[in-house]
Amino acid sequence: AQSVTQLGSHVSVSEGALVLLRCNYSSSVPPYLFWYVQYPNQGLQLLLKYTSAATLVKGINGFEAEFKKSETSFHLTKPSAHMSDAAEYFCAVSATSGTYKYIFGTGTRLKVLA
Amino acid sequence: AAGVIQSPRHLIKEKRETATLKCYPIPRHDTVYWYQQGPGQDPQFLISFYEKMQSDKGSIPDRFSAQQFSDYHSELNMSSLELGDSALYFCASARGALTDTQYFGPGTRLTVL
Q1: Cα B35 to chain center, whole Å?
Q2: Terminal CA-to-CA distance of chain A, rounded, Å?
Q3: A80 — phi, psi (to 5°)?
Q4: A44 at interface of B, judged by CB pairs closer than 8 A
């Protein structure tokens, strides 16, 4: 079985500051891991994904995440926050065998302060 | 590039009514997933189809049913609607049953009054 824990339902950063959104996972099999962003009243947009290739994954809009098996983590980072980054961010895990349904974390709302 | 299409985008129903949500996957995608996102909550998996057969089932109420048609579009039928069914319903499509990435549609926002 898979599960995801996102630490911090709300995160505030100043514009230009480092963004760090935390995600820890639990999986009985090697996982696939994803970060999605959701802007108000919109759908889910894929930021990046880990599928057992490189452990450091680069995504869109300057985001990246590092898969750390020893820490069962997949934290999302961005060196410099922009006002347009304000949104809800979801970490998701899926199995790598059987069915591929996503299990989502509870989300982290990122607020960017001017 | 073509994306996942969901219709309608917004739907308002009364309690005990029925609703049908439609999902048109990306061309050549044969797998469809349905998720429900309640207000302020994370998306929850409902059901999935691969090649017109149900491939997995999550926390989908018995009042809901779904199917995938020969053209791979999918419909989620919801009967005896309850206030708690108000949510954003996402459809996602993928190519093949063993692929890692799902592509999400914009969602259908269902409001039950």
Answers
A1: 6
A2: 41
A3: -140, 115
A4: yes
pLDDT at A90: 95
Does A42 contact B at CB distance below 8 Å?
Answer: yes
- How close B105 gets to chain A, by Cα (Å)? 6
Neighbours of B9 (CB within 10 A): 11
Mean pLDDT for each consecutive 10-residue tract of chain B (113 residues)? 91 98 95 93 92 91 96 97 96 82 92 97
Q: Which of B102, B108, B110, B111 to mutate to test the interface with A (most CBs of A within 10 A)?
A: B102
Contact list, B102 vs chain A (CB under 8 Å): 100, 102
d(Cα B45, Cα B91) in Å, to the nearest integer?
10
If you count residue pairs, one on A and one on B, with CB atoms under 8 Å apart, how many are there?
A: 54
First to last CA, chain B: 36
In degrees and rounded to multiples of 5, residue A97 shows phi and psi of -150, 160
Q: Are the beta carbons of B90 and A43 separated by less than 8 Å?
A: yes
Q: Could you tell me if B81 and B19 are in contact, meaning their C-beta atoms sit under 8 angstroms apart?
A: yes
3-class DSSP state of A71? helix
The answer to whether the beta carbons of residues B9 and B89 sit under 8 Å apart is no
Supply the pLDDT for residue A52: 78
Test B55 with A43 for CB contact under 8 angstroms: no
